Amino acid sequence: MVVSSLLMLTGICIMASVAHALAALRRPYDPTQGLFAGMCLAVVAYGISQVVCFTSYDEAAYLLGLKVNIFSVCIFFAFYGPFIQRYTGRGSIRLLQVVSAIYAVLAIINLSKDHSLQFDSVIELYQFELPWAESVTLAAGSISLSMKVAVLLTFCVLLYGVYALTRLWWQTRSGAVIAMLCAALLFLAATVQGAMVRLGLMDFIHLAPFVFLLMPLIMGTALNRESFQRLQASERRFRSLVEQSPFSIQVLTPDGKTRQVNSAWEQLWGLTKEDMASHQLLEDPQLIEKGAMPYLLKGFGGVATEIPPLVYNPAEDPYLEGPSRDRWVAAYIYPIKDGSGDISDVILMHQDVTDKKRTDDAMQLVATAVSSSTVDEFFDKLVVNIAQVFDASDAFIAVTDDRLENTLRTLAWSASGRLVGERLIPLEASACKEVLQIGQSKYFHEVRQDYPQDSLLSDLGTTDFIATPLRDARGKVIGLIALSDTRPLMHVEENTRILEIFAARAESELQRQQAEAHIRHMAYHDYLTGLPNRGQLQEWLSEANDTTAAVEPQNALLLIDLDHFKTINDALGHEVGDGLLQSVARRLQDIAGADARVARLGGDEFVVMLTVEGSAQLAAVKLAEGILEGLSQLLYVGERTFSVGASIGVALFPIAGSGEADILRHADLALYEAKKSGRGTINLFRPALQAAVANRLQLEEGLRNALGNGELQLRFQPQLGRSVGVIGAEVLLRWRHPELGYVSPVDFIPVAEETGGIHAIGTWVLTESCRHLSEWARQAVPFTGHLSINVSAWQFSRPDFVSQVFAALADYQVPPQRLMLELTESALLYDLQETIEKLRALRNHGVGIALDDFGTGYSSLAYLRDLPLDQLKIDKSFIAELSGEMEHPLVESIIDIGRNMGLVVVAEGVETGYHCQRLIELGCESFQGYLFARPLTEEDFRDWLEEEHSVVSFEQMLPMRRQDPTPTTRS
After folding, report:
1. Which domains does the chain have, with CATH numbers?
2. Rounded to two decimals, what is the model's pTM?
3. PAS domain spans which residues (predicted)?
4. What are the distances in angstroms from CA 605 to CA 563, 566, 585, 602?
C-alpha cells in the first residue's frame, strides 16, 4: 500500500513538472513556474528512490536508493528558497543563492560518501512492519555530522518559507497564498518527523515522502489558480485599457476580420463592431489606393509597423459613414503572438491627426505665402490657403478704411477656391462687428440665427463662422480674418488656434507694409513740412524729362529761395523758423493748386514743378509771379505774422542732352542770378549762365593748386605822406593762371572765400609779407614804413587769427609796428564784441589796424568810436568823383572824422595831380595810387625805393606828374 501510494504520487509529480515547465516556457519566460517545475522533478526522483529503499533487501541496493533520495532532497531545497522568494518577493536573493550553493555541495558530498550523507556507517538493514501488516526495509547506523547540518539548514529554509508566505497572506489575504502556507506548514511538520526518524529519535517510516509528493498537488493547484487569476486580471486590465484608451483601437484576426473595437474607434469612424462584421481590412480599396497596404501586410506578417498619416474621405469608402469631413489618421500595427510564436491577434491603433496636420499645413502655407512677390499676391495666397486648410467655402481678410464709415474693405477673398474682387462689408448688426468690438477670436454656430440682418452671411449661406481680429503694431484692431462655411465646422478650438496663426502672419505683413509705407514716406517726404523731398523730386524729373516727347520744353522747374530767412531763424529761434517754413509750404500748395507739384529741397529752398501743354515759359513766369505775390501776403506762425520775400530761378525742360541733375543745376544757376539781381526777382536759365559756371569751376579747380604750383604773386603799391615821404606799402595779390593768364582779384577772391581757400591764401600772404620785411631789414633796403595786408572777413573770423599773426611776426623777427592789417567794415561788424577784443590784442602787441573802403558800408560813428584803429582809407570810388569846383562833403567829412579821432587818413586810388591837389586842399596828408606808383613786383619796388624815394620828396614828385595819366581802374 505504501509503495503503490508512492508510485501513484510520483506519477502525479511527473505530470505536474511537465505542466509547470511548459507554463514557464511560455513567452515571456516565467521563472516562478520554472523553479516550481524543478522542485516537482526533484520530488519525482525522491519518490522513486524512496520506493527503492523501502523494497531493497541488500545493503548495496539500499545505499544506492538512499544516495539518490538524499540527493533529490538537496536539489529540492536548492530550488525551494528561490521559489519562495520569487513568489512572495521577500528575502535576500544573495543569501538564498548561498544556501542553494550549500545544498549543491551537500548533494555532491552525499554522492561521494560510501554510506550516503546520512550515515557514517550502516549497522544493519531490518524490516519494519506497519500497522496495516505491510513491511518496508529500513536501515540503522551511525548518523553523520553532515546530515545533522543538512537537517538544521533544512529547518531554517522551511521556517523562512513559512515566514514569507505568512507575511504575503497577511498583506493579500489571498486563498492561493493560504493554500501555499498550509502546504509549507505540512511540509515543515513532515520534515520534522522525517528528521527524527533519520536521527533515530523515532522508530517509524518517513512521512515526508508522502508530503513531498502531495506538495505539487497543493502548491501547484494554488499556483495555477493564482496564475489564472492574474491572467484574468491582466485580461481585465487589457480590456479596460483598450476601452478607456483615447486612441482608436481595433483588434483584428490574422485574416483581417474585426474581432474587437473600443469606443474611441467607434467615435472616430462613426461605426460599430457589427458594421464591420463583413469588412475585410486587407481588401479595403481606399487603403490600397492610398498606399497603406504595404504597411498592413508588414504588420500582419509579424513586424510592428507605423503607418504615416493618410487622408480618409468618407465619400470614397462605403464602410466609413461617420463625420462628413475628411480626416487625417495615423496608425500603428502590433501583432500579438501565442506561445508557439504564431500570430493570434493584430492590434491596429488609430490616431486622428487632422488638427496637427492642419496646423502643419497652416505653417507650411503661411511660409508659402511669405514667398509671394507682391503684397496683393501674399494676401491672395493666404486666403486661398486658409480655405484649403479648413476645407471651407469662403475665407477673407478685411480691414478698416478711414474713408469708409462702419464698413470693412477686403484685401483678399477666396470663394469656393476662386479669388474674387474687392468687396465692402457693412458692419451694422453683423458678426464681424462683434469680433471687432470684443477684440478676440469668436466661433459662431448657426450664425444666421443670431444675426439675421447680416447681409454678408445671408449671401454666403453661412452655417458656421469663425473670425479673429487683426491688430497694428500698437495693438489697435484694424480688421479681421474670417472663415465661413455652409457646413458645421469640426474641431472648433483647434481651428480657432490655427486661424490665429494665419492672423498673426497677416498682422505681421500688414505691419510690414505700414512700416514700408512709413519708411517710403520718410524717404520721399520732408519731415517738417510733409512735402515731397529731393528724392521724390528726382523721380518726378525722371518721369517728366522725356527728351523725345516734344519739340520744345513742356515742363518748368521753379527753384524758390526765401529772402533773409536765416535772419528770422537766428533772431526768433528754430521753432518759429520751422513754423514759418510750414506756413510757406501750405501757401505754396495753395498757389500751385492741382496743376503743379511742390517739394522742399531743404533749408529755405522749395521747388515747384509744372507741366503744361502750351508755352512752358509763359506758364512758369505767371506761376512764379503768383508765388512772389502770395508769399508777400501775411503768413501766420502762432501769434506772429510775417511777410517774406523770395527769389525764383526757372529752368525749362526737357532739353536735348540734359539729365535730371542738369535740370536742378540750371534752376540753381538761375536762382543764383536772381539773388544777385537784388532778391525778390525771377530769373530764367540761359545757356550763358552755364558758361559762367564753367569759368567759375575752372577758377575753383585752379585755386586748389595755385599755392602748390607757385602761381600766386605779391605786388607792392607805395603809400606816401605829404610831409614824411614813403610811409608804407599795400600788399596786393596777383594770380597767374597757366591757361587764363593773370586773373583779377575781383574774380578769384570771392571764389576763394566761398570755397574756403581764402584761409590758406591769407596765411600765405601774411607769412610772405613778414618774410619780405625780414629780408629787407637784413639787406638794408631803404624802406622803414609798414606793409598793409588786406584781411578777409572769413580769415579774421577764425579763432586763431591773432595767434597766427603773432606767430608769423615771431618766426621772422619782424617788429609789430611794421605790419598794418586792413579790414573792411563787413569783417569788423559780424561780432562787434569779439572784433574789439581781437583788435585790442593786436594793437597792444603793436600791430597797426586800418579800416579799408571807409564810407561804402554801414559806417557808423558809434562803432568807429569803439574800434581801436590807426588808419581810415578813403575808397577810390570817392576819389574818382573829385572834379571841378563842386563841393565834396563826404570826402571832407571822412578827412575831418579821421583828424578829429587822431587817425591817419589815406586816400587810395589817387591817379591825377588834380586829385592829389584837391585832397591836400581838403586836409588829406597820406596818399596811394597810380599817380605815385602802380602795384610793383618786389624787384621793381626795391628799384623804385632806390631811384625815387631816396632822392625825391613828396612835393618834388608832384611837378614830375604834370602830364597826369588817364585815370585807370585799379586791379
Report:
1. 2-232 (1.20.1070.10), 245-352 (3.30.450.20), 356-522 (3.30.450.40), 528-685 (3.30.70.270), 716-961 (3.20.20.450)
2. 0.43
3. 234-284
4. 10, 12, 10, 6
